[in-house]
Automatic annotation (TrEMBL):
It comes from Brugia timori. Signal peptide: none annotated. It is a multi-pass membrane protein. This is Phosphatidylinositol N-acetylglucosaminyltransferase subunit C. Keywords: GPI-anchor biosynthesis, Membrane, Transmembrane, Transmembrane helix. It is found in: Membrane. GO terms for biological process: GPI anchor biosynthetic process. GO terms for cellular component: glycosylphosphatidylinositol-N-acetylglucosaminyltransferase (GPI-GnT) complex.
Length: 204
């Protein structure tokens, strides 16, 4: 009787925890994963173009500035902060500290071989997939850990660019793609779940 009772209890627990999703909901959820992968691929493409001097620093900076302006404007519009001055101070602080510390960050992994750096960045980005916040409640979700893993991967890669300005631009881009962009994307998803489908079309 005890084994039957345990088996019956387990079945009840399984039925309670099962969540059914429609096809559209499943596609919208999968598109969030694709959006995160697109952000990582875009970062690798920008890094490769800088490393191979495919684009100039001015073009690279203009691209990042345009992305930052669009994302931050939409982000402020969605959260509607009461005090814009605090956001301005935060921006200035990140800008100053980031630029001052860039030479130190760029030389942190100079002694490590390039192949090891690429392998480390790949593993870190891959691990960030596991803990990334896809606008859902799950035991493995850790936004802070996911962001830190992505930034650590970025720190590995910036050691392979030739100038501090390019390194600073890559660090700024990583903050945009792996910190601010997921927040904005999740806010949009919670307000309108089909927004992820539109975003995946534009980002692809």
């Amino acid at each position: 009787m005890s084994m039957e009772f345990i088996s019956f209890s387990c079945r009840i627990l399984i039925l309670v925890t099962v969540v059914e999703y429609s096809f559209v909901e499943a596609v919208c959820g999968a598109s969030l994963v694709m959006l995160h992968s697109n952000a990582i691929i875009f970062y690798y493409l920008v890094f490769d173009s800088i490393k191979n001097s495919s684009i100039s620093f001015v073009q690279h900076f203009s691209l990042i500035f345009a992305i930052a302006l669009i994302l931050y404007t939409i982000y402020l519009y969605m959260i509607r902060p009461r005090n814009l001055q605090d956001h301005f101070y935060t921006f200035i602080t990140l800008l100053c500290f980031g630029y001052v510390l860039t030479p130190v960050i760029r030389t942190l992994t100079d002694t490590i071989s390039t192949d090891t750096i690429y392998a480390m960045s790949f593993i870190l980005f891959l691990t960030s997939f596991v803990f990334h916040d896809y606008a859902m409640i799950a035991p493995l979700v850790s936004t802070i850990l996911s962001v830190n893993l992505s930034l650590a991967a970025s720190v590995c890669l910036v050691s392979r660019v030739s100038s501090n300005e390019s390194a600073f631009s890559l660090l700024a881009l990583s903050m945009l793609l792996f910190s601010y962009w997921p927040q904005m994307r999740n806010i949009l998803y919670r307000k309108w779940s089909k927004s992820s489908l539109i975003l995946i079309i534009f980002s692809s």
